[in-house]
């Protein structure tokens, strides 16, 4: 059976107001340009999975003002048959953007927080991808349903925006296979989970390149709290660091970790950085598509070289994403990755 990914997540209209400066309290200013784009982390990541060449359905909600977004998602290759229309308006990000690149953002949850009738995991789902821009209980319901549906359903969680400490502690970590974070999120999660317990000793890093990364000790500490979960930590312009305990053990691990860390530097850009919005979502979507590809090849247990192959493509795709304006629009197609 070919892999199919379910994304239960957010759909937004991102409204960019181009302004001379961010508006002050009590001030009225006019915007010299207004642009609208489809956004939301659920939608961005679903588009990334689709553009990476994998089969994906997005379960979410829009208002009547969001039909064009649904059309855009459909054109990008996402199955939109489980996107419902509700009476609330579509989720919104109102973004003030100055010429020198500063921004300020107001988020409106809108339709993303409405009740969705689909509570069970559609049959044929092999991978479940979740973020945190819908009600936390809906995210939990999908994780629980995935665990009930099949032990082999692969679950991936990108906890963005960060859940509260209470939510982090109550999270069913035993039902999660893959966690995708940036360095700040890794640190926040560790603080919440460790609750002041002392840090464990950090083993020397076998890969010289990661010995200097501040994210390395952070990930080791986080992994000590959730030792079975594969953690992929994006490092912006520095690349990615991953701790993958589920790897097939072929060689002796050189430290007390379950497996040696994997570090890949970011790609050297051909052009300058234009817009990093959505780079993390592009990365996450390509990661899931990569896992799906391995699944379709029949790989039951991932090997180290499989993960390196997948992460290389993620880094290449995300690198291309930062060279173009926009989030979804800048996610490259698999065939265009060089
Ligand atoms: P987030 O926005 O979620 O915090 P990151 O900033 O870590 O995500 O970026 C995700 C990925 O995008 C990185 O792992 C890297 O591969 C790529 N990336 C981000 N910024 C750059 C950059 N300046 N040059 C090359 N690649 C980049
Ligand atoms: Na971009």
Please characterize this protein's 3D structure.
Homodimer. The strands form two sheets. A nine-stranded mixed β-sheet has the order 5-4-1-8-9-10-11-12-13, sandwiched between helices. The protein has a four-stranded mixed β-sheet with strand order 3-2-6-7. The two termini are 29 Å apart. Helix 1 (41-51) packs across helix 8 (279-296). It is of the alpha/beta class. The chain has helices spanning 41-51, 67-75, 136-149, 165-170, 183-194, 208-211, 215-225, 279-296, 304-322; strands spanning 5-8, 12-19, 33-39, 56-62, 83-85, 91-98, 103-108, 127-130, 154-157, 178-182, 230-234, 240-243, 262-264. Helix 3 (136-149) links the parallel strand 8 and strand 9 (154-157). Helices cover 31% and strands 20% of the residues. The chain contains nine helices and 13 strands. The mean pLDDT is 93. The structure holds adenosine-5'-diphosphate (ADP) and sodium ion.
Low-pLDDT stretches are none
* Ligand roster: adenosine-5'-diphosphate, sodium ion
Span of the ends, CA to CA: 29 Å
Order of helices and strands: EEEHEHEEEEHEHEHHHEEEHH
Mean pLDDT: 93
Overall geometric form: globular
Task: Give a short summary of the structure.
The chain is of the alpha/beta class and 338 residues long. It has helices at residues 41-51, 67-75, 136-149, 165-170, 183-194, 208-211, 215-225, 279-296, 304-322; strands spanning 5-8, 12-19, 33-39, 56-62, 83-85, 91-98, 103-108, 127-130, 154-157, 178-182, 230-234, 240-243, 262-264. The site of sodium ion (NA) has 9 residues, from helix 9.
